[in-house]
């Protein structure tokens, strides 16, 4: 797949998340669980997932994606499972904190029991996608939310407002929109300010829609330090992150914080929270540097 945005994969999340899940996220999840205390019944928390390879657990058709080939899946589950990772992805960790099974990929909906979807939610994420169309021919986030809306409308019994009130959504924007834009623009990384604005205003619409469908807690990933992705470190023989590329992540995340603050200001209590992958990656990379040889 060469250039096609796949370099944004899940390299460090596994190592970091197993030891240091982002604090904000645990606190938020904890609040949700406490709110459930006393009335929490098995299967009441559903997880709905939108976005890209950081959270996709197997939506790509088997014949079309490298995620179904080795060495993906090497450490978990031991064979390729459609995840763009050697092991677990962010979705799996969050599901585990919530004490539920990782929700099934939407692509499996005809193969699995409706009981499982009804109890644990659904994963609508497709690796390589963005809020806009990217180089991959898979559903962008708008289409993913359309699938969700269809499900909510078709199964009113299961997805009514009351039952949805204890549900959680994860939205991952790891940067495939940027990768697409930069590639189309002859690898020019300058003047991306307007690109950031349009990505985030589309994301804002998407978040409003997910909330409008009844989800009361929505986590959005802050962008990882893209200057630390292996491809960006070639010029320093894989030694140093590109500060220049990282400044794009920092700018994106600053604007994201503003949007999240604005959105939360418009609701009676905070709905939206940030899953800070930037700090997660940086901590993992610093630990790595101090303990060379650890994996
Ligand atoms: C998402 O994809 C659909 C189908 O390709 C397209 O019509 C729509 O414009 C896309 N949405 C955005 C926000 O790019
Ligand atoms: C960004 O948007 C502003 C206002 O719409 C415009 O004046 C400017 O030329 C744009 N910059 C680029 C690089 O497209
Ligand atoms: C990496 O960064 C360190 C600290 O700034 C510097 O000493 C070293 O020369 C850099 N390595 C390369 C290959 O650029
Ligand atoms: C939140 O709302 C208050 C009152 O409407 C306003 O003064 C404040 O600037 C808002 N903050 C943000 C971050 O939008």
Automatic annotation (TrEMBL):
<dbReference type="InterPro" id="IPR001087">
    <property type="entry name" value="GDSL"/>
</dbReference>
<dbReference type="GO" id="GO:0016042">
    <property type="term" value="P:lipid catabolic process"/>
</dbReference>
<dbReference type="InterPro" id="IPR036514">
    <property type="entry name" value="SGNH_hydro_sf"/>
</dbReference>
<keyword id="KW-0442">Lipid degradation</keyword>
<dbReference type="Pfam" id="PF00657">
    <property type="entry name" value="Lipase_GDSL"/>
</dbReference>
<feature type="signal peptide">
    <location>
        <begin position="1"/>
        <end position="25"/>
    </location>
</feature>
<keyword id="KW-0378">Hydrolase</keyword>
<comment type="similarity">
    <text>Belongs to the 'GDSL' lipolytic enzyme family.</text>
</comment>
<dbReference type="GO" id="GO:0016788">
    <property type="term" value="F:hydrolase activity, acting on ester bonds"/>
</dbReference>
<protein>
    <recommendedName>
        <fullName>GDSL esterase/lipase At5g03610-like</fullName>
    </recommendedName>
</protein>
<keyword id="KW-0443">Lipid metabolism</keyword>
<keyword id="KW-0732">Signal</keyword>
């Amino acid at each position: 797949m060469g250039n096609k945005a796949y370099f944004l994969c899940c390299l460090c999340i596994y190592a970091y998340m197993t030891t240091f899940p982002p604090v904000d996220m645990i606190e938020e999840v904890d609040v949700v669980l406490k709110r459930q205390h006393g009335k929490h019944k098995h299967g009441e928390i559903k997880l709905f997932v939108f976005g890209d390879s950081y959270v996709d657990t197997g939506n790509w058709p088997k014949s079309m994606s490298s995620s179904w080939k080795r060495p993906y899946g090497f450490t978990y589950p031991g064979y390729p499972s459609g995840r763009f990772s050697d092991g677990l992805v962010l979705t799996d960790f969050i599901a585990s904190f919530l004490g539920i099974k990782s929700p099934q990929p939407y692509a499996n909906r005809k193969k699995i029991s409706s009981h499982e979807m009804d109890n644990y939610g659904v994963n609508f994420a497709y690796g390589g996608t963005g809020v806009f169309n990217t180089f991959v021919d898979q559903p962008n986030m708008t289409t993913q939310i359309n699938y969700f809306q269809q499900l909510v409308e078709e199964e009113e019994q299961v997805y009514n407002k009351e039952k949805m009130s204890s549900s959680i959504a994860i939205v991952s924007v790891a940067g495939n929109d940027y990768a697409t834009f930069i590639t189309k623009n002859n690898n020019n990384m300058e003047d991306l300010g307007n690109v950031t604005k349009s990505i985030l205003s589309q994301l804002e619409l998407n978040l409003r829609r997910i909330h409008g469908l009844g989800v009361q807690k929505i986590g959005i990933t802050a962008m990882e330090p893209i200057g630390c992705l292996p491809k960006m470190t070639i010029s320093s023989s894989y030694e140093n992150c590109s500060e220049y590329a990282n400044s794009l992540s920092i700018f994106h995340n600053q604007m994201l914080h503003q949007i999240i603050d604005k959105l939360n200001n418009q609701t009676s209590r905070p709905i939206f929270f940030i899953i800070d992958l930037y700090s997660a990656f940086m901590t993992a990379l610093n630990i790595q540097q101090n303990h060379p040889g650890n994996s």
